[in-house]
Amino acid sequence: MTFSAIVSADTLQSALDSVSVLVDECKIHLEPEGLEIRAVDPANVGMVDLELAASGFESYEADGGLIGLNLTMFKKVIGMADSSQLIHLELNEQIRKLDIRFGEVDYTLALINPQSIRQEPDIPSLDAPVTLTATGKQLDRGVTAADLISDHVVLETTADHELVIDAEGDTDDVQVTFDEDDLVDGRINESVSSLFSLDYVTSIVGVMDADHEVEVRLDDEMPFRMSYDHSDGAASVTYTLSPRIGGGD
Amino acid sequence: MTFSAIVSADTLQSALDSVSVLVDECKIHLEPEGLEIRAVDPANVGMVDLELAASGFESYEADGGLIGLNLTMFKKVIGMADSSQLIHLELNEQIRKLDIRFGEVDYTLALINPQSIRQEPDIPSLDAPVTLTATGKQLDRGVTAADLISDHVVLETTADHELVIDAEGDTDDVQVTFDEDDLVDGRINESVSSLFSLDYVTSIVGVMDADHEVEVRLDDEMPFRMSYDHSDGAASVTYTLSPRIGGGD
Amino acid sequence: MTFSAIVSADTLQSALDSVSVLVDECKIHLEPEGLEIRAVDPANVGMVDLELAASGFESYEADGGLIGLNLTMFKKVIGMADSSQLIHLELNEQIRKLDIRFGEVDYTLALINPQSIRQEPDIPSLDAPVTLTATGKQLDRGVTAADLISDHVVLETTADHELVIDAEGDTDDVQVTFDEDDLVDGRINESVSSLFSLDYVTSIVGVMDADHEVEVRLDDEMPFRMSYDHSDGAASVTYTLSPRIGGGD
Fold it and tell me: Keyword annotations for this protein (chains A, B, C) (predicted)?
């Protein structure tokens, strides 16, 4: 098993952030064409699929291995680097360590046996009737408002061509409404609605940049998907979130 | 009862801040010429009288109603807006809700029965022998120093034309002294002194901007008054603070 | 005993910071040529020797007295001043107080009986085989990395002309390596190594500026010394840190 790569700190950090929002440790597939991570949180509610293509690296060499990684520790190490600094990664399979070098720092990270890490989820294919694209900022506005009064949020679309992010508290309620023309892309012709745990939505939206363009797929009382690219398209992230039972307002 | 208004987020936030420093909920008089709030803290030590004139609004319409409001929640909602964003307020009397709209956000805030809110204080008229005007920054300097060593503070004026903010700790003491010529305005010819709880003074001074010009009225072992305007004179705030018994140094 | 001085807030604050990292109270020698403070932390592990020459003051007058000072309180008082503001210090021996004045503030700080303060350490002379000069930033990089995984750190030099800051966790390890050419100054020809408590090293390096040039003296399983100047050379600080027993990797 061979893995040797050079990547900018900010590309790597963004990729790790998108996974660590759901899990503390994960399996990483070291494919010839790039890294892939699939993970599901302990409650089996949120799934992430991250692909970081070889084109996102300054240099990349891998032959299809699988390693287990302590994401929390890995992120702390990368967090010491300046954002544009190049990180050198090198797998030492015999001693099951990942060597991380940047500037004067040489950190040796012990790997985790992949078999001891929660099984990777099968990301379901969604046949969602509504697909739209919103900015990270728009989604953030919605979940921030919902978070004022509730611990769950309704995501719905209306026959009036609107996306509505909706929450109800004990006495108050809030709606954040985007007309389809306010969004980056997408036509909304159907009325669907699902209820989600706000903890998950807030955390996931929290790792997005304000100007990320996020494709959202929604169905009626069904899982909800958010996908976006970063690092000039080299990284693609897909979240799938299960609805709360009894949802849909 | 009718109330419908448009106001910038920062004007509204400043007005709410000046009241929420003493109470979490309050009655608001929706007079044709503007809003008025009078409140006293639970310990009956600090009183505030806020007037926000119709001229401080982009648009304002009211016919003399009285509503009860959860200030804490109202402030959180307004806090989501950008400071220059316009807030649309509309009272729905039948369902006892205040509709708050800005940008894509539409928040419905449940009102509180005004009768369940602590009675409004009668703001006493003061016949204080000393009236002077200091900046928010000068007052802040004084209370910050006092706060290093004590939980109460003496405000005094001297026959030497000085305002002295004075605190004594177990072993140390501190005086912050302003000659009347250092102040924005006011002649000091009389020697008066009163002792106040620093918690109140610090909180109240904390909501003032450094360049606010604050009229201060002081008497000997008597309540103390601070008044200032903001939002181009549309908002006027008056605090009256009872002295601690046994005070006056 | 006479002491009267005027000094900029930032010079005084930097000087106090370098001592307060080890102790909360200290003796100060008020010598005609300047202040001197020597202190050792309660565990007898870290020693500091601070000299602040009369040239670092705007005005300075002292005749060799000794006072005891509550550093924590002194720092809070100075912390209220703007960094370029001039601090007037005046000893009032009869009432055992130090008068601290700046702007409108007049703070009277009670002194501590010097006899009640832990005895000053004898700073040992070191006959260290390795002397080098690194920046505050370089040292910070090393201790920050070590701090990720351990509560102690190995400082070593190698026959390969390198300074290595080295830490080992339960599963991971990290080395931060500087070639002698990367350093500000110093030739490294000898291999020495000592183990130190990271708490001390982190705190001490934490008070240094990134561009401070710090002279480091290292020996094999022996105390370690860091010295640097600030305030245009008027202040000189020397730290001596005892190694942990069983150290040296």
Answer: DNA replication, DNA-binding
